[in-house]
Amino acid sequence: MAGSKLVLEGRISIISFISGLAVIIIPLLVNFGSHVDWIFDYLTDVNGKIAIAAYITVINGFLLIIYKGPLYKVAVRACFLGFTFGCGLTLSFADTTWTHFGWYMCSLSFFHYSEYLVTAIINPRSLSLDSFLLNHSVEYTLAAVSSWLEFTVEKLLVPEIKQLNWLCLVGLVMVMCGEGLRKAAMLTAGSNFNHIVQNEKAQSHVLVTTGVYALFRHPSYVGWFYRSIGTQIMLCNPICILGYTVASWRFFRERIEEEEISLIHFFGEDYIEYKKKVFTGSPFISGIRVNS
Ligand SMILES: C[S@@+](CC[C@H](N)C(=O)[O-])C[C@H]1O[C@@H](n2cnc3c(N)ncnc32)[C@H](O)[C@@H]1O
């Protein structure tokens, strides 16, 4: 991989993500006087909303003219994620009680975009629109929508629990560490990493046991697990903190067992030896039992 060029889809996704992200310059271009909370004024102002809507419409029009068919589908998704990141960033710096939701918007859009970009770098042969993980599963979508609903309802009924700054910071740190660990795992495993668990061994598939794989057997799942709980801590969503913890723990317990059956089939004794030495990384998950 070293020295090789990023595939066309990857390059288009970067341009499109930045085009969406550039929405942050709109409030900077418009002079709203010397208000301290001028970004908040801008966000709530009708003209501000019209400017944002006009911006995204124009950018989408450009993408539609420049890119055709499958390339447009990549561009529009990356642009939407960049736009969400930009709106989240603007909200984060605004003088509003929605700051932590702004952090959440940034973390969610960054996660989905970086999954695509890193896949384009490490394993372009497996790259597809699914690499954005936007349509991961019905359960995943339901979990996301539930967290937005819980945040909104509690913000209306018990607004004080949404302002626990220290807790939001703990969540933010968990999100950043989890995200970092996941991306480190993807970059370490390289072309051996695939969003779809492989049941047939590719000729080039080798067992990775170095870097973060020397610390944990399933570092990308560890990262995802803590990152997803971190998003709910950041939003101070008590119901979803519990729900996300239980649901993701069950999901990864099953997933790790299934994956390890294939890995033992692929690498035999080498994987069994590796399994003896290195912990899965997830609490109370030991992986597939092997009789030796
Ligand atoms: C979504 S990746 C997850 C990798 C790993 N479970 C983790 O959490 O970092 C799934 C793919 O990685 C492959 N894989 C998992 N562990 C591996 C290892 N130590 N070396 C090489 N390939 C591995 C599996 O065969 C599967 O196709």
UniProtKB/TrEMBL annotation:
EC code: 2.1.1.100
GO BP, sorted A to Z: methylation
Superkingdom per UniProt: Eukaryota
The reaction(s) this protein catalyses: [protein]-C-terminal S-[(2E,6E)-farnesyl]-L-cysteine + S-adenosyl-L-methionine = [protein]-C-terminal S-[(2E,6E)-farnesyl]-L-cysteine methyl ester + S-adenosyl-L-homocysteine
Top-level class of the enzyme under EC nomenclature: transferase
Bilayer topology annotation: Multi-pass membrane protein
GO MF terms, alphabetically ordered: protein C-terminal S-isoprenylcysteine carboxyl O-methyltransferase activity
Cellular component terms per the entry's GO annotation: endoplasmic reticulum; endoplasmic reticulum membrane
InterPro entries: ICMT_MeTrfase (IPR007269), PPMT_MeTrfase (IPR025770)
Entry keyword set: Endoplasmic reticulum, Membrane, Methyltransferase, S-adenosyl-L-methionine, Transferase, Transmembrane, Transmembrane helix
Role this protein plays: Catalyzes the post-translational methylation of isoprenylated C-terminal cysteine residues.
Family membership: Belongs to the class VI-like SAM-binding methyltransferase superfamily. Isoprenylcysteine carboxyl methyltransferase family.
UniProt name for this protein: Protein-S-isoprenylcysteine O-methyltransferase
Organism annotation: Danio rerio (Zebrafish)
Gene symbol of the encoding locus: icmt
